[in-house]
Amino acid sequence: MVKTSLNQTSPGRQFLYFVVIFAGVFVVFNVLGILAIGLFYGFGLVMDIARLNFSDPGSIPALYLLQIVTTTIPIFVAPVLFAAWVMRQPQEYLKTSWGIPPVLFVVAFFIMLISSPLIELLSNINQQLTLPQSLKGVENWMKQSEESAKQVTAAILNMHTVWDCVKNVFLVGFLTAVAEEFLFRGGMQTILVKLTKNEHTAIWVTAAIFSAFHMEFYGFLPRMLLGALFGYFVAYSGSIWPAVWGHFLNNSTAVVATYLYQNKRIKLNPDDQHVFTWWQYVFSLIIIIILLLVYKKVAGGRENAKLNGEELG
């Protein structure tokens, strides 16, 4: 009886539940994270981190702990609670099935590989956007938020050893990919598909929210594109794992490239946004569209075969 009534909950109410659960979990783990840092490292260090002062040797380990407890864990826990405890349909909302063709991971790999020029183009366009004079205060706040995020990222990605790189590939690459995909492409996109009754709308709205969530406004457009790609990976395959894979590839590649550049193993600065040419931008867009169609066909072929098998049975 309870399960039936939950299944009949309107998409709008589901979205409200989802947001409330995330907000509650986020607040609880932020309080726990600050208390943990205060107890282990001292509350003075908490204030230093809040002021973006990382001169204390304990600030980086504390920052890692803070990131995991206040961000990664609640982002993962909230959709799991919603799907398994509130809706009691974890597979429908989290899409954790592994029953997909392995070749989808190969296609996703090449999509992520070929997306670099298009990401650069959108980043350059994004950097040139300015708000009207009447919104100068908002623009200044956006720039300050961007700079703060960059300082935190730079502190975490300050790597001197291979172990530092491996640690960040696990934290920034793997854990972040799993948590964010469960939240956005798992729970949120599923609800928005039900709410909008349009898969494409749900994918792009989710991608926009995903990008805005990072509070890095001058990277909004490229991150929204990435979110949309991850969204199509899930929508076409019915599984969260190709999106997790793509997200992991994007994040871990940035980590490894940063490590190699910092330690003078490569000369190309990963932050350089003027690497590709216009024809490479166009080529990137065309190939991504083709590969997405291939991805959809492979995933759809498997689904059709499954349905035909059930009909024959």
UniProtKB/TrEMBL annotation:
GO terms for molecular function: endopeptidase activity; metallopeptidase activity. The chain crosses the membrane at residues 15-43, 63-86, 98-119, 202-221, 228-248, 278-295. GO terms for biological process: CAAX-box protein maturation; proteolysis. Keywords: Hydrolase, Membrane, Metalloprotease, Protease, Transmembrane, Transmembrane helix. Pfam families: Rce1-like (PF02517). Residues 168-252 form the CAAX prenyl protease 2/Lysostaphin resistance protein A-like domain. Coiled coil: none annotated. This is CPBP family intramembrane metalloprotease. It comes from Mucilaginibacter achroorhodeus.
